Structures are given as C-alpha cells and as structure tokens.
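Long-time lurker, finally posting.

We've been working with Arsenate reductase ArsC (Dielma fastidiosa) and I want a structural starting point before designing mutants. I don't trust myself to interpret raw outputs, so I'm hoping someone here can both generate the structure tokens and explain anything notable. Sequence follows.
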Amino acid sequence: MKEHLPKAAFICVHNSCRSQIAEALGKQLAADAFESYSAGTETKPQINQDAVRLMKERYQIDMEATQYSKLIEELPPIDIVITMGCNVKCPAIRCKYQEDWGLDDPTDKNDEEFNKVIDTIYEKIVALAAKCSQLI
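Top reply, 14 upvotes:
Generated this for you. Predicted structure of Arsenate reductase ArsC:
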C-alpha cells in the first residue's frame, strides 16, 4: 500500500446530497485507492434525508454517523476534485486532477431518480478508483 493515498474531494453547492453520497461510497468502495471528502460552497443543517435513508437501505451506510455538511475551506489539501454538476461556478481548488460528473440533483424527486443518481455515483467511484494510480 502507498504511504500517501491521494485525497479526493466531491464538491456540490450545499454538500447535502450527491457529494455526501460520493464521499460515503468512496470510503466504502475505494478506500485503498483514495481518501474521500466532500464539501460545498454553502452548507445545510443536515444531509438530505432521502439520501441517508437509501444509502442505509442499499449499502448499510449511515452517512449521518460520520459525515456532515461542510464548506470547501474545511478540506485538507486535495489531489482530486470532482464536481457534481451543479451548474454554478465553484471556487478554484488547487489540485492535480479535476473532473465534473454532471449529475442532476435528485432532491425532492422520487426514489427511482435518487437510485439512478446513486447507481451513477457508484459506477463513477469504481472507475475513479481504477484509474487513480495513473492520475496522481
């Protein structure tokens, strides 16, 4: 195992839904490839409750146990920045690699829409982990 795993930050406006899902799945699926963090340009008092419920049902991950909505300024130095596709200009974050996943926000939508987003994030986390050693 490497001495220093790259740090990946998943960024979204409120850091309450997509970025939180990505952080949780990154910790579960890719802990040997990168460290997972999430943050936003604003915060919410709690993580989206539909996301919390579905992640518990599908992956037995309790996001509220270890995660909370936080600002970009609270992140450690980051190697990989993944924006969720918020259609807003994020502040520049120094990093070695960046990509945008272009995901629609499922907030206030039905479980089917939430599950589509969760499935896409799952696939993208696996793909990021697979190519991580070539990125950094």
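Before you design anything, note these points.
The longest strand covers residues 7-11.
Residues 111-135 form the longest helix (25 residues).
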